[in-house]
Structures are given as structure tokens and as C-alpha cells.
Request: fold
Amino acid sequence: MRDLSGTIAAEATPPGRGSVRIVRLSGPQAVVLLKSLFVPQGPLPWERPRCLCLGAVRAPGEGILDRALAVYFRSPDSLTGEDVVELQVHGAPGVVRGVLDLLGAGGARMALPGEFSYRAFLNGKLSVMEAEAVNALVDAETEGQAAGLAGGLHGGIEGELRAMLEEVLDLRAGWEAGIDFPEDVGDMGLAGSLERLRSMVGQLEGLVRAAPALRYLREGWRLALVGPVNSGKSSLFNALLKRERALVTPHPGTTRDVLEESVQIGGYPLILMDTAGVRATSDPVESLGVERGLKAASVADGAVLVFDGRKGWGDEEEGLLGRLNGAPVAIVANKADLGIQAGHMPAGTFSVSAVTGAGLERLSERLGVWMEAAAPKGREVLSSDRQVEALRGALAGCLAALRTAEEGRGEDLACGGLVEAQRALEACITGGSVEDLYDRIFSRFCIGK
Ligand SMILES: Nc1nc2c(ncn2[C@@H]2O[C@H](COP(=O)(O)OP(=O)(O)OP(=O)(O)O)[C@@H](O)[C@H]2O)c(=O)[nH]1
Ligand SMILES: [Mg+2]
Reply:
């Protein structure tokens, strides 16, 4: 059994060089440990909770390791609910190492990943869903990601799920009463409960449907560059990335495999995929590449169909457009610097030049608009795959209950679906059984959280 007691220490800031780094301590010995290594040069932090106090960090009988600021949060008014101390030291890796060594020698244990959050959860400071929201947020690299993922911090979605759980319990109680005393409940009661169940199904469907949005926020929106050979897909890929990542040559059929790179556009993370140009070919390697490219495009969140603007839009492009999935497609007439062939092309086609960069800004703006529209807003955000899975279970339960009741197969059978929904909602909110909660959820967080 893992020992999750005692006083723990870890760095709260990311490793690396910086102006300031923070070492955090939590547990019953936090103040004792602070006193053992901190020499205040003014107010005593252990007498002035929540005040930053200046002092020196030194090992007993040794020279000063660093000048630092210390702050003490007295239990239970702290992050974890325990006594917490934070030391702000200069951002040198050696200083942080030295402080952690001193704390270790004094009896502190190095914290396990997510152990601060786990203690906060045990002491009622943070719910499992809030802890997951914080964990998702610290991974946000772009502004859009941060804004979207911060939605989960306010507990809005958790409140909504708790209300839904109440509804399920209420419906269950009503139906169970109907089984025992059918004459007291009647058809009117049933019609009302079906209405409530339908509305819950709608709500859950909305949440589950928004689940891919979690992937958009965490990993990025996947965009495939597709088009006939030699149209300039790799050149456009490089231009959007602002570096020469893909091989570009005048020879048709240069790109063979799917290349993936991340870039930030309009505050959102975008995964750009360069693919092999589409043409009928007898070369087995090239044809495999074409197949892979089309497959990548078929599961992407959007596509850019690049054609050679000099040659114009033709049957080949039209055919390719028809093969793309229903995701948004931007049509790009490339090589605008060489002149665009007049004639028919789809409305809204972007004229660009991957070589001069002309038109790229408008194209990026459009991609930004799509990503903005796809990103979840505020309270819609589920912050872990675990939550998504649990809500899928709740939806399945509600749907089963609804169908059974609608088909008049009896409230007792329909109650089975409600029980399933209830369990799934409870699991989503509480994280499931407390016993292995640390291992299942918190141990995946980073150290110092
Ligand atoms: N003048 C001009 N040439 C371009 C432009 N974009 C690409 N090219 C040229 O077109 C040729 C093909 O470019 P690539 O980017 O390799 O085209 P691709 O679509 O990736 O080609 P495949 O991988 O073979 O399908 C190269 O010689 C590029 O320099 C452009 O905007 N203007
Ligand atoms: Mg290419």
C-alpha cells in the first residue's frame, strides 16, 4: 500500500532556469521544517500566516544557500487543507535542488505526482472534477486553450451534473412508487417523467457531442492539406509553419507520407498535415501515400484543398472535393504570383501564393474562425476522457430508461436504465471508488500539483 501521509515537498514551478521558483510543503511538519532552514530577516512567517516574509535559507551550521521569501498557510485555510509553506527562491536549478535536499534531510518526503491535489480532495478543498480541470488547464499552451479549459474550473458543469443526478433519483423514486402503488401515479405522472427524461437525454447528448472539443483544446484541431500533385501543398505547409519542414521540389509526387506539425493560429493549437498529391499512379509506393493522405483527410477536423491556380479548377479537383468528409474545407488556388486562370472555381476560393505569402493571412483568419467555432465554450468543457466516458454511460442509461418506458415495457425495467445513469453520474462527479482514486486519477497529474 502506498504511503500517502506525512509532510511532502515538491517544486510547484516547472523545472528549468527562471527568475523565481517555488518549493511547496504540505503536512503536519511544514512549519517545523520551515523553522529548520529559514532564517527570517523581519516578520516571522509562522507568526504571520499568508504574509510573504523575507529571509535566508541555510542548512543548520552552514552558509546561506539563498535569500528567499516564505509564506505560511495555516490549516485548514490552505491549498491542501493542511499546513502549507511555500518558499520562493531564486530560479537556479541548484538552489531548488539544495532546498529540496534540506527538506528531505529534515524528514519531508518528495511528493508523488498529483499528491497536493489529492490531499486537497481528501480535505474537501477540491472536487475530483475541479482537480481534473486544473490539471487540464496547466497543459494549455495557447490562449484559446487556456480560456476554454478554465471553464471547467468554476464547477459549472459539476453543478449541472449534480442537478441531473437529483433528477434521476427523483424519477427513480417516482417510478418505484408507481410499481408499488400504480393507482396513485397514473399516466399523467408517466408523461411528465418522460418529458424530464427526454430533456436529460438532450443535455447529456450535448455534453457528449462537445467531447471532441476537449481533444481540440488539448491536442489541437487537425487540418489536412490535400490536392492534386504539385499544387503547392508542401509549400503551403511550410509557409503556415514558417519553416522549411517539408520537402518541396518541382517534381510531381514529391510528398509520400503524411507529415504532421503543430502550429498556433488565432490562439488555438492546430495540427497541420501535409499529404501526398492525389493522382492515378502505377507506382505502388506513391499510391500507398495517396491512400494514406486521403485517409488522414477523412478523419481530420477540416481540410484545405490546394490546387494550382494557374491551371484552374477542373474535374480532378471537383472529384477530390467530393471525396472529403463533411468537415469544413477551404479551397485554395495557389501560385497566385504566377497569375490565376480565369474561369469557374467554387465560391469563396482563396487566392494565395505559398511563395510570396500573399493571401495567407485571410486563409489563417478563416482557420481561426473554424477553430473558435469548434472550441467548447465555458461550462461545456469536460476536462478528462474519464468524464466523457462516464457521461456516455449516463446517456446510455437514460436512453435505455426512456425507450423502455416509451414502449410501455414497465417502470420496473425502465428503472434499470435509471440505476445505470445514476451510477455513471455519481462516478463522473466523485471519480468512483475512493480506495484507488489516487492511482486512477491523481497519479496522472504532474509532480508539484
Ligand atoms: N511560383 C510559385 N511556385 C510555387 C508556389 N507553391 C509551390 N510552388 C512550386 O511548385 C512546385 C511544387 O511545390 P510543392 O509544395 O512541392 O507541391 P506539392 O503539392 O506538395 O507536391 P506533391 O508533394 O508532389 O504533391 C515547387 O517547385 C514549388 O516551388 C507558389 O505559390 N508560387
Ligand atoms: Mg508535397
Q: What stands out?
A: The chain is about 45% helix and 15% strand. The first helix runs from residue 30 to 37. Residues 233-234, 246, 254-255, 274 surround magnesium ion (ligand 2) (CB under 6 Å).
